[in-house]
Amino acid sequence: MLTFIGLGLYDERSITVEGQEALRSADRAYAEFYTSKLLGTSVAELESYHDVEIEVRDRAGVERDPEEILATAESEDVAFLTAGDTMISTTHVDLRLRAHERGIETRVIHGVTAQTAASALTGLQNYRFGKATTLPFPYAHGADGLPASVTETIDANRADGLHTVVYLDIKVGHERADEDEFMTADVGAELLSEEYPDLVGVVVARAGSPDPLVEAGPMTELADRKFGDPLHLLVIPGECHLLEADALVELAGADRDDLDID
């Protein structure tokens, strides 16, 4: 059995009760933290809190060489842990399909996602979000300006009146950096302001923690602010319902005159 468990957004307590029970009863536990991380805890604290040993796998150890995980799951009860909700990344879908090809039973136990948390914290309705995109560090995509994947997503969503979640790049174990690197919202806003200087953005910082932060403003203004510890993401509102506009003004300090209200 291979059980995929989402750990939630922040620390060792963010997991669901169902996920906790499955983790504690597993024979082996593997985890990856290259797609996202729990900034409010460490692997050692996860192990201590749940009374388990966790083997952390890098990207290659999940995507290119998952043999150990799969072979173990053929005869033992294996938990595979990720931050957030476990099936958001195609990496994990691929691993699940590989397990099915070998006749291994799988189970998915969901966790809270950054996108649903962003909807809840900003007051923007979840069904009014379009396709999400990820803003990479400039060195990661190697081109001048914003990648087409970012601008095309934002432009298409805005044309349809939809909100956009912009995930900010994370580099874990990257050869360029001596330590893990997390793009902050001010850096993301500065990059986006080159193409969208007056566009309103909403910063969501530390979703799932005891002190989440939500702040709205034009990209050029957000680029000059600091938002504290990561993780951060940006939301670009599309057309706002009156209730959504009220929420952004009250919860994020938005200027109503800057919003597109339908």
Highlighted features:
262 residues; 11 helices; single chain; five-stranded mixed beta sheet; alpha/beta; Cobalt-precorrin-4 Transmethylase, domain 1; Methyltransferase, Cobalt-precorrin-4 Transmethylase, Domain 2; 34% helix; 12 strands; five-stranded parallel beta sheet
Q: How would you describe this structure to a colleague?
A:
- The chain has 262 residues and is an alpha/beta fold.
- It folds into two domains: 2-109, 3-Layer(aba) Sandwich (Cobalt-precorrin-4 Transmethylase, domain 1), CATH 3.40.1010; 114-258, Tetrapyrrole methylase, C-terminal domain (Methyltransferase, Cobalt-precorrin-4 Transmethylase, Domain 2, 2-Layer Sandwich), CATH 3.30.950.
- It contains eleven helices and twelve strands.
- It has helices at residues 17-25, 43-50, 59-63, 67-73, 90-101, 114-122, 138-141, 148-159, 185-193, 219-222, 242-252; strands spanning 2-6, 28-31, 55-56, 78-82, 106-109, 133-135, 164-168, 170-171, 181-182, 200-205, 213-218, 232-236.
- The strands form three sheets. It has a five-stranded parallel beta sheet, with helices on both faces. A five-stranded mixed beta sheet has the order 6-7-12-10-11, sandwiched between helices.
- Strand 10 (200-205) and strand 11 form a beta hairpin.
- The longest helix is centred in the middle third of the chain and has 12 residues, at 90-101.
- It is elongated.
- It starts with a strand and ends in a 10-residue tail after the last helix.
